[in-house]
Amino acid sequence: MRDVIATKDGPAAIGPYSQAIRANGFVFVSGQIALDPVTNTLVSGDVAFQTDRVIKNLSGILQAAGTSLEKVVRSTVFLKNMSDFAAMNEVYSTYFHTAPPARWPVSQKMCW
User: Fold this and answer.
1) Which CATH architecture best describes the domain 2-110?
2) What pTM value is reported for the model?
C-alpha cells in the first residue's frame, strides 16, 4: 500500500513530487525549505527563524500522515554555511529534545 500525503499545514508541492508518501508503515517526507504554507513564499529572517519554519512544516506534514516528530528516526539538515550550525541546532533541539533522531548535518560546501 502506498498513500500520498497532502496537507495545507505544509508547503504545496511545486513540482512532480508529493509532500510525503506513507508506505509499509513508514512515512517518507520530501525535503523542506523555509516556505510559508499559506503564501508558498520563502520566509525572511535568520537561520533560526528559517529552521523553525522548516520544522513546523515537517510537523504539519507528519501530522497529516498520522504521525509526529517524536517518531522521526533520521533527518538530514542542509546548511548553506556551517557557521549557522549553532543557531540551527538550538532551534532543532527544542523540537527534538527527548531521544532525538539520527542526524546528518551537511553544508553546501560538502555537496557535490
Assistant:
1) 2-Layer Sandwich (3.30)
2) 0.91
